[in-house]
Amino acid sequence: MSTSGTDRLTRTTVFAPRLDALLRDHRGGDVFRLDADTMGVAGHDLTDRILAARPATERERPTFKPLHGRSIPRTEASTVMQAIGRDVRAALKKPAPRGVDLSGEWPHVGHVYLRDLILGADPYRLRILMDRTLELTPKLTWTVIATGAALPGRLRPGAPVTSIAGLTANAKNYSDRRYAMGMYRRAAAPVCFTVSTLVANAYWLGAPFDDGTPNEPILYESMRLLPPSWNILRNASPEYPALDARIGAGDDVLLLPLLSHRAPALWDDPEEFRPERWATLDPDDLPGYLPFGHASERCWGRHMVMPLAGMLLDAMRAADLTVDPAQTSAKVPLAGLLGVDKVRLVRESGAGHR
Ligand code: HEM
Known about the structure:
Strand content: 5-15%
Bound molecules: protoporphyrin IX containing FE
Largest sheet: 4 strands, mixed
Number of domains: 1
Order of helices and strands: EHEEHHEHHHHHHHEHEHHEEE
CATH class: Mainly Alpha
Strand order of the largest sheet: 2-3-6-5
Shape: globular
Protein backbone atom coordinates (compact mmCIF):
# COMPACT_ATOMS: atom_id res chain seq x y z
CA MET A 1 0.00 0.00 0.00
CA SER A 2 1.21 3.50 -0.75
CA THR A 3 0.08 6.73 0.79
CA SER A 4 -0.06 10.04 -1.04
CA GLY A 5 3.22 11.73 -1.88
CA THR A 6 3.13 14.52 0.70
CA ASP A 7 6.32 13.26 2.41
CA ARG A 8 8.40 13.97 -0.63
CA LEU A 9 7.41 17.63 -0.60
CA THR A 10 9.45 18.09 2.58
CA ARG A 11 12.65 16.78 0.94
CA THR A 12 15.40 19.15 -0.15
CA THR A 13 17.89 18.13 -2.82
CA VAL A 14 21.21 19.84 -2.18
CA PHE A 15 23.22 20.13 -5.38
CA ALA A 16 27.00 20.51 -5.28
CA PRO A 17 27.84 24.24 -5.65
CA ARG A 18 28.84 24.01 -9.32
CA LEU A 19 25.67 22.14 -10.27
CA ASP A 20 23.62 24.57 -8.23
CA ALA A 21 25.26 27.52 -10.02
CA LEU A 22 24.51 25.95 -13.41
CA LEU A 23 20.86 25.51 -12.50
CA ARG A 24 20.58 28.98 -11.00
CA ASP A 25 22.37 30.87 -13.77
CA HIS A 26 21.55 28.94 -16.93
CA ARG A 27 18.26 27.10 -16.54
CA GLY A 28 16.25 28.16 -19.60
CA GLY A 29 19.45 29.40 -21.30
CA ASP A 30 20.65 28.54 -24.77
CA VAL A 31 24.46 28.87 -25.20
CA PHE A 32 26.84 30.28 -22.61
CA ARG A 33 30.54 30.26 -21.86
CA LEU A 34 31.61 27.90 -19.06
CA ASP A 35 35.36 28.48 -19.25
CA ALA A 36 38.07 29.68 -21.62
CA ASP A 37 37.55 26.80 -24.03
CA THR A 38 34.18 25.29 -23.17
CA MET A 39 30.71 26.44 -24.17
CA GLY A 40 27.66 25.14 -22.33
CA VAL A 41 24.58 24.38 -24.41
CA ALA A 42 21.11 23.97 -22.91
CA GLY A 43 18.85 25.04 -25.79
CA HIS A 44 17.02 22.05 -27.23
CA ASP A 45 17.26 23.05 -30.87
CA LEU A 46 21.01 23.66 -30.82
CA THR A 47 21.55 20.50 -28.74
CA ASP A 48 19.78 18.50 -31.41
CA ARG A 49 21.77 20.06 -34.23
CA ILE A 50 25.12 19.61 -32.48
CA LEU A 51 24.51 15.94 -31.71
CA ALA A 52 23.26 15.31 -35.24
CA ALA A 53 26.23 17.13 -36.82
CA ARG A 54 28.70 14.28 -36.46
CA PRO A 55 29.07 10.94 -34.66
CA ALA A 56 30.89 10.89 -31.31
CA THR A 57 34.61 10.28 -31.68
CA GLU A 58 36.13 7.33 -29.82
CA ARG A 59 37.49 9.62 -27.10
CA GLU A 60 34.04 11.08 -26.48
CA ARG A 61 32.37 7.69 -26.01
CA PRO A 62 31.85 7.05 -22.31
CA THR A 63 32.00 3.27 -22.32
CA PHE A 64 34.17 2.29 -25.23
CA LYS A 65 36.77 5.01 -25.27
CA PRO A 66 40.29 3.57 -25.81
CA LEU A 67 41.44 1.28 -23.01
CA HIS A 68 45.15 1.21 -22.07
CA GLY A 69 45.81 3.13 -25.29
CA ARG A 70 44.06 0.53 -27.46
CA SER A 71 41.10 1.59 -29.59
CA ILE A 72 38.06 -0.61 -29.16
CA PRO A 73 36.62 -1.58 -32.52
CA ARG A 74 32.83 -1.60 -32.94
CA THR A 75 32.76 -5.37 -33.36
CA GLU A 76 34.50 -5.85 -30.03
CA ALA A 77 32.25 -3.30 -28.34
CA SER A 78 29.18 -5.13 -29.56
CA THR A 79 30.55 -8.52 -28.46
CA VAL A 80 31.06 -7.09 -24.97
CA MET A 81 27.58 -5.54 -24.93
CA GLN A 82 26.02 -8.82 -26.08
CA ALA A 83 27.82 -10.66 -23.28
CA ILE A 84 26.64 -8.32 -20.54
CA GLY A 85 23.19 -8.28 -22.17
CA ARG A 86 23.03 -12.10 -21.83
CA ASP A 87 24.07 -11.84 -18.18
CA VAL A 88 21.41 -9.23 -17.46
CA ARG A 89 18.70 -11.29 -19.19
CA ALA A 90 19.75 -14.33 -17.15
CA ALA A 91 19.52 -12.24 -13.97
CA LEU A 92 16.07 -10.96 -14.92
CA LYS A 93 14.86 -14.55 -15.33
CA LYS A 94 15.78 -15.40 -11.75
CA PRO A 95 12.86 -15.41 -9.28
CA ALA A 96 11.73 -11.92 -8.29
CA PRO A 97 13.62 -10.67 -5.23
CA ARG A 98 10.56 -10.77 -2.96
CA GLY A 99 12.19 -12.00 0.21
CA VAL A 100 15.24 -9.76 -0.01
CA ASP A 101 15.56 -6.76 2.26
CA LEU A 102 16.39 -3.76 0.07
CA SER A 103 16.05 -1.21 2.86
CA GLY A 104 19.13 0.72 3.95
CA GLU A 105 21.39 3.27 2.37
CA TRP A 106 20.96 3.77 -1.37
CA PRO A 107 22.41 3.63 -3.97
CA HIS A 108 24.86 1.36 -2.11
CA VAL A 109 22.25 -1.31 -1.27
CA GLY A 110 21.09 -1.49 -4.88
CA HIS A 111 24.61 -1.62 -6.23
CA VAL A 112 25.61 -4.56 -4.05
CA TYR A 113 22.34 -6.36 -4.76
CA LEU A 114 22.77 -6.03 -8.54
CA ARG A 115 26.43 -6.99 -8.40
CA ASP A 116 25.62 -10.21 -6.57
CA LEU A 117 22.54 -10.94 -8.70
CA ILE A 118 24.22 -10.43 -12.07
CA LEU A 119 27.87 -11.23 -11.38
CA GLY A 120 27.60 -13.44 -8.29
CA ALA A 121 29.08 -16.44 -10.13
CA ASP A 122 32.29 -14.61 -10.94
CA PRO A 123 35.54 -14.94 -8.99
CA TYR A 124 36.28 -12.36 -6.34
CA ARG A 125 39.14 -11.01 -8.46
CA LEU A 126 36.60 -9.84 -11.02
CA ARG A 127 33.76 -8.87 -8.71
CA ILE A 128 36.07 -6.62 -6.67
CA LEU A 129 36.25 -4.43 -9.77
CA MET A 130 32.66 -3.47 -8.98
CA ASP A 131 33.46 -1.97 -5.59
CA ARG A 132 31.75 1.42 -5.41
CA THR A 133 34.74 3.05 -3.73
CA LEU A 134 36.80 2.39 -6.84
CA GLU A 135 34.63 4.70 -8.88
CA LEU A 136 35.84 7.68 -6.88
CA THR A 137 39.49 6.84 -7.25
CA PRO A 138 40.41 5.86 -10.80
CA LYS A 139 44.03 5.39 -9.82
CA LEU A 140 43.04 2.77 -7.28
CA THR A 141 40.95 1.07 -9.94
CA TRP A 142 43.97 0.56 -12.11
CA THR A 143 46.07 -0.69 -9.22
CA VAL A 144 43.46 -3.31 -8.39
CA ILE A 145 43.18 -4.34 -12.02
CA ALA A 146 46.93 -4.63 -12.39
CA THR A 147 47.19 -6.72 -9.20
CA GLY A 148 44.28 -8.98 -10.18
CA ALA A 149 45.73 -9.56 -13.64
CA ALA A 150 49.00 -10.75 -12.12
CA LEU A 151 47.30 -13.32 -9.86
CA PRO A 152 47.68 -16.97 -10.85
CA GLY A 153 44.66 -19.24 -11.27
CA ARG A 154 42.94 -17.29 -14.00
CA LEU A 155 39.70 -18.48 -15.58
CA ARG A 156 39.78 -21.45 -17.87
CA PRO A 157 37.73 -21.14 -21.06
CA GLY A 158 34.31 -22.64 -20.37
CA ALA A 159 34.39 -22.02 -16.59
CA PRO A 160 30.86 -21.58 -15.14
CA VAL A 161 30.88 -17.78 -14.87
CA THR A 162 28.97 -14.96 -16.50
CA SER A 163 29.33 -14.29 -20.23
CA ILE A 164 31.14 -11.05 -19.52
CA ALA A 165 33.67 -12.81 -17.28
CA GLY A 166 34.03 -15.53 -19.90
CA LEU A 167 35.56 -12.94 -22.21
CA THR A 168 38.52 -12.60 -19.83
CA ALA A 169 39.23 -16.34 -20.11
CA ASN A 170 40.65 -16.05 -23.60
CA ALA A 171 43.37 -13.59 -22.58
CA LYS A 172 46.76 -15.15 -23.27
CA ASN A 173 49.19 -12.99 -21.30
CA TYR A 174 49.38 -10.38 -18.54
CA SER A 175 48.73 -7.44 -20.83
CA ASP A 176 45.72 -9.08 -22.50
CA ARG A 177 44.36 -10.14 -19.13
CA ARG A 178 44.73 -6.65 -17.74
CA TYR A 179 42.93 -5.30 -20.80
CA ALA A 180 40.13 -7.89 -20.49
CA MET A 181 39.63 -7.00 -16.83
CA GLY A 182 39.47 -3.32 -17.72
CA MET A 183 36.80 -4.18 -20.26
CA TYR A 184 34.91 -6.23 -17.66
CA ARG A 185 34.80 -3.18 -15.47
CA ARG A 186 33.84 -0.87 -18.34
CA ALA A 187 30.84 -3.00 -19.26
CA ALA A 188 29.71 -4.54 -15.99
CA ALA A 189 30.22 -1.63 -13.60
CA PRO A 190 27.83 0.80 -15.32
CA VAL A 191 25.01 -1.68 -14.98
CA CYS A 192 25.31 -1.75 -11.20
CA PHE A 193 26.28 1.90 -10.74
CA THR A 194 23.75 3.49 -13.06
CA VAL A 195 20.72 1.36 -12.21
CA SER A 196 21.18 1.71 -8.45
CA THR A 197 21.65 5.46 -8.87
CA LEU A 198 18.57 5.77 -11.05
CA VAL A 199 16.41 3.90 -8.53
CA ALA A 200 17.80 5.89 -5.59
CA ASN A 201 16.97 9.10 -7.47
CA ALA A 202 13.45 7.87 -8.19
CA TYR A 203 12.83 7.06 -4.55
CA TRP A 204 14.22 10.34 -3.34
CA LEU A 205 12.14 12.35 -5.78
CA GLY A 206 8.90 10.47 -5.67
CA ALA A 207 8.38 7.89 -2.91
CA PRO A 208 5.94 6.81 -1.73
CA PHE A 209 4.54 6.21 -5.19
CA ASP A 210 0.83 5.98 -5.94
CA ASP A 211 -0.15 2.36 -6.46
CA GLY A 212 -1.66 3.20 -9.85
CA THR A 213 1.52 4.75 -11.28
CA PRO A 214 3.57 2.33 -13.39
CA ASN A 215 7.36 2.18 -13.09
CA GLU A 216 8.26 3.59 -16.50
CA PRO A 217 6.81 7.10 -16.02
CA ILE A 218 8.43 7.16 -12.57
CA LEU A 219 11.81 6.41 -14.17
CA TYR A 220 11.36 8.88 -17.04
CA GLU A 221 10.38 11.62 -14.62
CA SER A 222 13.35 10.81 -12.35
CA MET A 223 15.73 10.99 -15.29
CA ARG A 224 14.22 14.33 -16.21
CA LEU A 225 14.91 15.96 -12.85
CA LEU A 226 18.07 14.02 -12.00
CA PRO A 227 19.56 12.77 -15.28
CA PRO A 228 22.30 10.26 -14.34
CA SER A 229 24.07 11.32 -17.52
CA TRP A 230 23.73 15.03 -16.86
CA ASN A 231 26.19 16.26 -19.48
CA ILE A 232 27.39 15.10 -22.88
CA LEU A 233 30.77 16.34 -24.08
CA ARG A 234 31.74 17.00 -27.66
CA ASN A 235 35.26 18.21 -28.40
CA ALA A 236 35.87 21.25 -30.59
CA SER A 237 34.97 20.51 -34.18
CA PRO A 238 34.44 22.73 -37.26
CA GLU A 239 30.76 21.76 -37.50
CA TYR A 240 29.91 23.60 -34.29
CA PRO A 241 30.93 27.21 -35.05
CA ALA A 242 29.12 26.71 -38.35
CA LEU A 243 25.93 25.95 -36.43
CA ASP A 244 26.23 28.83 -33.99
CA ALA A 245 28.65 31.74 -34.23
CA ARG A 246 28.87 32.03 -30.44
CA ILE A 247 30.85 28.77 -30.42
CA GLY A 248 34.52 29.42 -31.25
CA ALA A 249 36.72 27.17 -33.41
CA GLY A 250 38.62 25.92 -30.34
CA ASP A 251 35.63 25.52 -28.03
CA ASP A 252 34.56 22.18 -26.64
CA VAL A 253 30.81 21.90 -26.19
CA LEU A 254 29.16 20.61 -23.03
CA LEU A 255 25.53 19.73 -23.72
CA LEU A 256 23.48 19.88 -20.57
CA PRO A 257 20.40 17.68 -20.26
CA LEU A 258 20.40 18.72 -16.59
CA LEU A 259 19.26 22.15 -17.79
CA SER A 260 17.12 21.34 -20.83
CA HIS A 261 15.19 18.86 -18.68
CA ARG A 262 14.03 21.77 -16.53
CA ALA A 263 13.62 24.46 -19.19
CA PRO A 264 10.46 26.43 -18.36
CA ALA A 265 9.66 26.75 -22.07
CA LEU A 266 9.52 22.97 -22.51
CA TRP A 267 7.83 21.69 -19.37
CA ASP A 268 4.77 22.55 -17.30
CA ASP A 269 5.80 22.93 -13.66
CA PRO A 270 9.40 21.99 -14.56
CA GLU A 271 10.56 21.59 -10.95
CA GLU A 272 7.69 19.28 -9.97
CA PHE A 273 8.00 15.49 -9.91
CA ARG A 274 4.95 14.53 -11.96
CA PRO A 275 5.17 11.03 -13.49
CA GLU A 276 1.66 11.44 -14.88
CA ARG A 277 2.97 13.92 -17.47
CA TRP A 278 4.42 10.89 -19.34
CA ALA A 279 0.94 9.58 -20.12
CA THR A 280 0.89 11.88 -23.13
CA LEU A 281 4.61 12.31 -23.88
CA ASP A 282 6.95 10.12 -25.94
CA PRO A 283 10.31 9.92 -24.13
CA ASP A 284 12.07 8.91 -27.37
CA ASP A 285 10.83 11.88 -29.31
CA LEU A 286 10.71 14.94 -27.13
CA PRO A 287 12.79 18.07 -27.78
CA GLY A 288 15.34 18.70 -25.04
CA TYR A 289 14.78 15.34 -23.29
CA LEU A 290 17.80 13.12 -23.79
CA PRO A 291 18.59 11.01 -20.73
CA PHE A 292 19.98 8.30 -23.00
CA GLY A 293 21.56 10.63 -25.54
CA HIS A 294 20.56 11.64 -29.02
CA ALA A 295 18.43 9.69 -31.49
CA SER A 296 21.48 9.44 -33.78
CA GLU A 297 23.24 7.19 -31.25
CA ARG A 298 21.27 6.32 -28.15
CA CYS A 299 22.72 4.53 -25.18
CA TRP A 300 23.38 0.89 -25.94
CA GLY A 301 22.62 -0.08 -22.36
CA ARG A 302 19.14 1.38 -22.03
CA HIS A 303 17.40 -1.92 -22.80
CA MET A 304 19.11 -3.40 -19.76
CA VAL A 305 18.69 -0.36 -17.54
CA MET A 306 14.93 0.01 -17.78
CA PRO A 307 13.95 -3.63 -16.98
CA LEU A 308 16.52 -3.89 -14.17
CA ALA A 309 15.32 -0.65 -12.60
CA GLY A 310 11.73 -1.83 -13.06
CA MET A 311 12.50 -5.14 -11.35
CA LEU A 312 13.99 -3.32 -8.36
CA LEU A 313 11.07 -0.90 -8.18
CA ASP A 314 8.57 -3.79 -8.27
CA ALA A 315 10.28 -5.48 -5.34
CA MET A 316 10.72 -2.27 -3.37
CA ARG A 317 7.17 -1.07 -3.92
CA ALA A 318 5.82 -4.52 -2.94
CA ALA A 319 7.85 -4.26 0.30
CA ASP A 320 6.39 -0.77 1.00
CA LEU A 321 9.79 0.87 1.08
CA THR A 322 9.97 4.63 1.28
CA VAL A 323 12.46 7.31 2.25
CA ASP A 324 12.98 7.56 6.00
CA PRO A 325 10.74 10.51 7.01
CA ALA A 326 13.56 11.69 9.29
CA GLN A 327 15.73 12.36 6.23
CA THR A 328 14.83 15.77 4.87
CA SER A 329 17.83 16.50 2.68
CA ALA A 330 20.22 14.62 0.40
CA LYS A 331 23.30 15.75 -1.47
CA VAL A 332 23.96 15.46 -5.19
CA PRO A 333 27.75 15.49 -5.54
CA LEU A 334 29.57 16.78 -8.60
CA ALA A 335 30.38 13.52 -10.38
CA GLY A 336 30.15 11.95 -13.81
CA LEU A 337 27.06 10.05 -12.72
CA LEU A 338 24.48 12.39 -11.24
CA GLY A 339 22.56 11.13 -8.28
CA VAL A 340 21.58 11.59 -4.67
CA ASP A 341 23.98 10.22 -2.15
CA LYS A 342 23.00 8.25 0.96
CA VAL A 343 19.24 7.97 0.74
CA ARG A 344 17.87 5.97 3.66
CA LEU A 345 15.05 3.65 2.69
CA VAL A 346 12.79 2.10 5.33
CA ARG A 347 9.56 0.13 5.33
CA GLU A 348 6.60 2.50 5.38
CA SER A 349 5.10 0.83 8.46
CA GLY A 350 8.47 0.86 10.23
CA ALA A 351 9.33 4.43 9.34
CA GLY A 352 10.58 6.37 12.34
CA HIS A 353 11.07 3.22 14.49
CA ARG A 354 14.66 2.43 13.50
C1 HEM B 1 20.78 5.09 -16.14
C2 HEM B 1 21.63 4.47 -16.96
C3 HEM B 1 22.29 5.05 -18.18
C4 HEM B 1 22.17 6.30 -18.72
C5 HEM B 1 21.35 7.47 -18.20
C6 HEM B 1 23.01 6.32 -19.91
C7 HEM B 1 23.17 7.41 -20.75
C8 HEM B 1 23.89 7.41 -21.92
C9 HEM B 1 24.05 8.55 -22.78
C10 HEM B 1 23.50 9.95 -22.52
C11 HEM B 1 24.76 8.15 -23.87
C12 HEM B 1 25.20 9.02 -25.07
C13 HEM B 1 26.59 9.57 -24.82
C14 HEM B 1 27.09 10.45 -25.95
O1 HEM B 1 26.39 10.65 -26.95
O2 HEM B 1 28.21 10.96 -25.82
C15 HEM B 1 25.08 6.76 -23.69
C16 HEM B 1 25.79 5.99 -24.58
C17 HEM B 1 26.18 4.72 -24.34
N1 HEM B 1 25.88 3.96 -23.23
FE1 HEM B 1 24.69 4.49 -21.70
N2 HEM B 1 23.61 5.10 -20.06
C18 HEM B 1 23.19 4.29 -19.02
C19 HEM B 1 23.58 2.99 -18.79
C20 HEM B 1 24.43 2.28 -19.61
C21 HEM B 1 24.90 0.94 -19.32
C22 HEM B 1 24.49 0.13 -18.11
C23 HEM B 1 25.74 0.59 -20.34
C24 HEM B 1 26.54 -0.68 -20.57
C25 HEM B 1 26.48 -1.76 -19.95
C26 HEM B 1 25.78 1.70 -21.27
C27 HEM B 1 26.49 1.69 -22.46
C28 HEM B 1 26.51 2.75 -23.36
C29 HEM B 1 27.24 2.71 -24.63
C30 HEM B 1 28.05 1.53 -25.14
C31 HEM B 1 27.03 3.93 -25.26
C32 HEM B 1 27.53 4.36 -26.65
C33 HEM B 1 28.75 5.21 -26.57
C34 HEM B 1 29.94 4.48 -25.96
O3 HEM B 1 30.57 3.66 -26.59
O4 HEM B 1 30.22 4.72 -24.80
N3 HEM B 1 24.98 2.70 -20.78
N4 HEM B 1 24.53 6.32 -22.49
